[in-house]
């Protein structure tokens, strides 16, 4: 189909990660002319950029892949219960090939600006190379965790050794052998990379500001026989993901922490600690993340495990979080993480005791000493959720900047639309259901596709969420977050990033309602003919 007169494309999608790829496929099925702009040289998004050793799923592989195509499910075998990054990237390349997606994707094309024009009801997208491209719809598939942040430490640029942010890991091989390596950051990423570096580095120093509560991943290979059973069970696997709170295979236990005897409680915790995946986080007692006393029980249990696993009691204490309870931040899953600190070549520096003063050409200077390094790895995370939007100059009707609309925190309708930004549709935007992300992506993409189909069938060319719809959704987001202990803790869940100007205070960054509740609301909007939206 030809694009409407004056336009280059019917839709422009920013990003060729899991959501951008699927969106392209769906819109092409409608017969639309779509262009995807991708900053990287290949598809894969998160799995393209995060090539650091140790990067892998914490969701079961077979619950993470696309579910929409029988053919894809038939033809792809997962080799491990929690696949590593190279395999996931291969998978996404396989999907791109299979669906012949690359011909509509322009790589090495970072979008720097996107401006809406009312007269033509269109978006003009500007790329880094200065070229402009105009389309009816702007679909952002930029990812909630894709704008990496470096620490704001004096001298970062002066270091003369190798320096890498985990989310900008080089494509070629990186060797730690014989090197003195520093890792800054102990989130889900830091925990994964630390385990790998410790295997071969001459010396590893971990700079930890806040310890996190980690739990065992219990990964293992998938045998051919198991893969056959998984394949036969796909309908059941995806049905289950649709029913659970956050689309994982795990779901909260209906019991309260104190409704069982202390012995039963301990036995349940032991069982969860010995099972693969996120069960201990999202399949625990139902009150774990809302009742401080219940949370203290599981925290004490995990603290005991850390003390058992780390030989030096002083190091163990440093690894036990004191200012937040288990599960109130993202739980990193690990394979021998705590044992790393029993190795003679590994040292833990607690930045609360000895802050970094500056990075020097030779290494890192703390109040206590100057540490010399051959390599510094920044596992310092992302300007989450709104960061990837903030890095693009997005302007809606009347030239209003999205960054200004979201000053003080993002507000959206269903995480998909924003008042004042007609024809901009967000995939995995702020305040959409997250959890096991591909499940939410498929839902988001299907909803957006249905909306666009609805508009095209009726010759409509403009969609906007009215302010009251946005305000209403924000009320729901607030209500869903009420009483959660995670609201009282600094993390990307609460929008805090010490490395980003203006993100030092907690906001409601994330939708914490259930995925089924989210879908129910979105389905209702569609079923009512999108009456809540302004369509023209
Ligand atoms: P996270 O979870 O945001 O972790 C970043 C880590 O880096 C965390 O330990 C931070 O300490 C630390 N950090 C950040 N800035 C600094 C400075 N300036 N000095 C010292 N330490 C610092 O990011 P991840 O990449 O691990 O994971 C992000 C998500 O991606 C994860 O939740 C998964 O869902 C996938 P802090 O805790 O802020 O004190």
Automatic annotation (TrEMBL):
UniProt KW keywords: FAD, Flavoprotein, NADP, Oxidoreductase
Highest rank taxon of the organism: Bacteria
Protein name (database record): NAD(P)/FAD-dependent oxidoreductase
Native organism taxonomy: Bacteria, Pseudomonadati, Pseudomonadota, Alphaproteobacteria, Acetobacterales
InterPro entries assigned: FAD-binding_Monooxygenases (IPR050775), FAD/NAD-bd_sf (IPR036188), Flavin_mOase-like (IPR020946)
Protein's organism: Caldovatus aquaticus
Keyword Oxidoreductase applies: yes
């Amino acid at each position: 189909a030809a694009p409407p007169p004056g336009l280059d494309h019917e839709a422009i999608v920013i990003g060729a990660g899991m959501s951008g790829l699927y969106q392209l496929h769906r819109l092409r099925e409608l017969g639309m002319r779509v262009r995807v702009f991708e900053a990287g040289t290949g598809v894969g998004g998160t799995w393209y950029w995060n090539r650091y050793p140790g990067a892998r799923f914490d969701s079961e592989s077979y619950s993470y892949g696309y579910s929409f195509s029988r053919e894809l499910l038939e033809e792809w075998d997962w080799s491990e219960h929690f696949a590593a990054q190279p395999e996931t990237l291969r998978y996404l390349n396989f999907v791109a090939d299979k669906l012949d997606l690359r011909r509509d994707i322009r790589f090495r094309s970072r979008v720097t600006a996107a401006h809406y024009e009312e007269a033509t009801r269109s978006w003009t997208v500007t790329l880094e190379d200065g070229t402009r491209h105009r389309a009816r719809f702007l679909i952002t598939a930029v990812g909630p965790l894709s704008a990496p942040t470096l620490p704001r430490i004096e001298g970062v640029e002066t270091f003369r050794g190798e320096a890498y942010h985990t989310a900008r890991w080089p494509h070629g091989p990186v060797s730690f052998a014989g090197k003195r390596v520093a890792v800054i950051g102990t989130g889900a990423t830091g925990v994964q990379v630390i385990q790998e570096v410790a295997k071969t580095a001459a010396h590893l120093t971990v700079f930890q500001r806040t310890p996190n509560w980690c739990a065992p991943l219990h990964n293992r290979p998938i045998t051919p026989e198991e893969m056959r059973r998984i394949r036969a069970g796909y309908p059941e696997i995806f049905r289950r993901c649709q029913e659970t709170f956050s689309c994982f295979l795990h779901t909260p236990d209906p019991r309260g922490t104190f409704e069982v005897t202390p012995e039963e409680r301990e036995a349940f915790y032991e069982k969860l600690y010995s099972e693969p995946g996120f069960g201990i986080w999202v399949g625990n007692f139902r009150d774990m993340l809302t009742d401080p006393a219940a949370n203290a029980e599981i925290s004490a249990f995990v603290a005991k495990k850390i003390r058992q696993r780390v030989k030096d009691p002083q190091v163990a204490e440093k690894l036990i979080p004191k200012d937040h309870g288990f599960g109130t931040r993202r739980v990193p899953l690990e394979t021998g993480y705590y044992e790393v600190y029993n190795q003679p070549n590994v040292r833990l520096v607690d930045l609360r005791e000895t802050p970094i003063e500056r990075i020097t050409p030779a290494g890192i200077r703390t109040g206590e000493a100057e540490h010399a390094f051959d390599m510094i790895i920044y596992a310092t995370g992302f300007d989450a959720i709104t960061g990837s939007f903030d890095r693009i100059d997005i302007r809606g009707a009347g030239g209003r900047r999205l960054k200004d609309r979201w000053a003080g925190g993002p507000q959206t309708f269903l995480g998909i639309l924003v008042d004042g930004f007609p024809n901009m549709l967000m995939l995995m935007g702020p305040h959409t259901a997250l959890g096991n992300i591909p499940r939410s992506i498929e839902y988001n993409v299907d909803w957006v596709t249905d909306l666009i189909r609805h508009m095209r069938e009726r010759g409509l060319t403009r969609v906007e969420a009215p302010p009251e719809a946005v305000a209403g959704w924000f009320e729901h987001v607030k209500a869903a977050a009420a009483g959660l202990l995670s609201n009282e803790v600094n993390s990307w869940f609460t929008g805090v990033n010490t490395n980003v100007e203006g993100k030092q205070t907690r906001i409601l960054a994330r939708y914490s309602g259930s995925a089924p509740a989210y879908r129910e609301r979105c389905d209702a909007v569609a079923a009512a003919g999108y009456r809540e939206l302004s369509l023209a």
